[in-house]
Design goal:
CATH class of one domain: Mainly Alpha
Helix content: over 70%
Radius of gyration: 20 Å
CATH superfamily of one domain: MFS general substrate transporter like domains
Number of strands: 0
Shape: globular
Oligomer: single chain
Strand content: under 5%
CATH architecture of one domain: Up-down Bundle
Mean pLDDT: 84
Largest sheet: none
Length: 219
């Protein structure tokens, strides 16, 4: 905004869109950071889609909460998320995006495991606060990594492509989660989601690394 114009203005055309998509797909297929970000975020989205739509049903039928109490839980999630978003961004800046993302996965897995064990409104409130903090830890770190891994002129396309791809991958997950609820147990989809969050920590820690910049070779 200070410069008064976009960093890399380009004409809008199908040809430029096709070129940007091709460049992003090439980066994804290259097996680098963007590849692993798509894989881990895809696993997270699919795993969470298995169970998140079932949460209100679980809270009402098994947790015994009223509609008003369920609404309060969403408010608690929002407050925790809002209160920790800035510290989470600071953590990503100071300790690196990997640390913030791993912490986010750990907190969300702990919250999910706790979700199927607690039996009081206070317990569920703590779980929802953990969810809020976990999500807040991951959001700024993921966006920061994408902005560093993708060239300026491709960032908007990259965000759009990743969001669309993840939505496509997770599309059948709610129906699968409902089948797991009915055929195995109501708690199984949530445990599966928690396990997936823990497994995602491994590729995040070992693969979420930006390539080292080459030293200047001089003029």
């Amino acid at each position: 905004m200070g410069r008064g114009s976009e960093a890399n203005p380009q004409p809008l055309s199908l040809e430029s869109l096709r070129g940007n998509l091709g460049a992003i797909l090439g980066m994804i297929l290259a097996g680098g950071l963007l590849t692993w970000m798509l894989i881990t975020d895809g696993v997270r989205d699919v795993a969470y889609a298995l169970s998140f739509n079932l949460m209100p049903l679980y809270l009402e039928d098994i947790g015994g909460l009223s509609a008003q109490q369920i609404g309060w839980l969403m408010s608690i999630f929002g407050l925790a998320n809002m209160a920790t978003s800035i510290p989470a961004g600071w953590l990503a800046d100071k300790r690196g995006e990997r640390v913030a993302i791993v912490l986010g996965f750990v907190l969300q897995a702990a919250a999910m495991f706790g979700f199927v064990r607690v039996q009081t409104f206070l317990g569920y409130a703590i779980v929802w606060a953990l969810f809020g903090v976990g999500v807040a830890c991951m959001g700024p770190a993921y966006e920061s990594l994408i902005s560093k891994a993708v060239p300026d002129e491709l960032r908007g396309t990259a965000f759009g492509l990743l969001r669309s791809s993840l939505g496509l991958f997770s599309l059948p997950a709610p129906a699968i989660g409902a089948q797991l609820w009915e055929r195995i147990s109501p708690r199984f989809p949530f445990r599966l989601t928690a396990g997936a969050a823990l497994l995602a920590i491994v590729p995040v820690w070992f693969k979420f690394k930006l390539p080292k910049e080459r030293p200047d070779d001089g003029p």
